[in-house]
Amino acid sequence: MMLFVVILLVIFVVVPGVIFFKMEIDMTNDRLRWLEERLTTLEKDAVKITFQSKPKPKQFDGVKSEEPFVKTRTKRKPKSVKDWEDQFDLGGNQ
After folding, report:
1. N or C: which end of the chain has fewer CB within 10 A?
2. Is 62 left (phi over 0), alpha (psi -120 to 50) or beta?
3. C-alpha dist (Å) from residue 46 to 37, 52, 54
């Protein structure tokens, strides 16, 4: 009787457990293969991407090209109210 219980235990517990773990291992391997294929595709796509550098600003005449370009011009701000009124016509003062 005890031998019968052991055989049933092996048939109904151990065999399905082995089959279950074998299927899990197969699914894990499939997922890993899919991820590896996806990574390969992404690597190929990454190689296709090209980066464009920003164009360098043009130098003024007489400035050496080795020197860094520095913007020196600024907008002139009106110093007095008269200058401001001459620059911006608000209308209504006729």
Report:
1. C
2. left
3. 14, 15, 20
